[in-house]
Design a protein that fits this description.
Largest sheet: 6 strands, mixed
Number of strands: 10
Bound molecules: adenosine-5'-triphosphate, magnesium ion
Structural class: alpha/beta
Distance between the termini: 49 Å
Oligomer: single chain
Radius of gyration: 18 Å
Strand order of the largest sheet: 6-7-8-3-9-10
Order of helices and strands: HEEEHEEHEHHHHHEHEHEEHH
Shape: globular
Amino acid sequence: MLWTRCFVIDMKELLSIENLTVAAGSKLLVDQVSFDVPKGKIVAIAGGSGSGKTTIGLSILRLLASPLSIRQGSIFFEGRNLLELSDEEIRRCRGARIGVVFQEPLSAFDPLFTIGRQLDETLVAHTKMSKQERYKKILGILSEVELSNPQRAYESYPHQLSGGMRQRAMVAQAMVCGPSLIIADEPTSSLDVTLQVKIAGILDSLKKKDVSVLLISHDLGMISHVADEVIILCQGKMVEQGPARQVIDSPRHEYTRQLVLATM
Ligand SMILES: Nc1ncnc2c1ncn2[C@@H]1O[C@H](COP(=O)(O)OP(=O)(O)OP(=O)(O)O)[C@@H](O)[C@H]1O
Ligand SMILES: [Mg+2]
């Protein structure tokens, strides 16, 4: 009984970042950042260009490249500190338990292979599904991200899709293995307003499946629309944190006020 209680409490926070500090040489790019992403919630990180948003996302994925390195902190995900996993363990986690949506889907997809084949490769790498099961799963996911002709999207090469369709295919790629967390770094910044609304709707629908999203964005309009919580970052430091609507509608910190004025 006691064990069940502890388990439930632990699992409430899917991702828990404590005192994360990232530096390049003597320069601190992320300074003692702590926050949680609960199960089935959308938590956004907002802040000006260069404030360290992407660096936090890359730290979670353990994809920081030299000269950037994590100086301090812990990143607990599904009960394990990601910073202590072996390279093989983190590779298995990426793509399977943590899906990623990058800003520019053209660079994320290989131009030489169809979207279907690339999604299939992700499933081959992380699951034991049969070819037929994988095909069915991929068509299902492509239609979930509202690609009206999933079969056509499956057979298309990345350049044959429009920017908005590619971005949705990227979300499908992030979702295909059924991750519990999706990190979406500026998923809508290259899209027009209609498509931004569509992507926001897709992110919102993930919550119903108990998937959590770490949304990295400077778009406070979208954040106030879809995110449960927001963290405001200024030069690597958290300056404000709270329910997204509340923080954006009545910011307490001067930097947040300026950000709201500049972006909404
Ligand atoms: N390879 C690197 N070497 C040195 N400094 C770096 C490197 N990569 C990033 N930085 C610095 O780290 C800081 C944070 O960068 P990051 O990309 O995380 O910002 P961001 O908030 O995602 O910005 P944007 O909104 O423009 O995407 C910036 O000051 C940037 O110059
Ligand atoms: Mg960035």
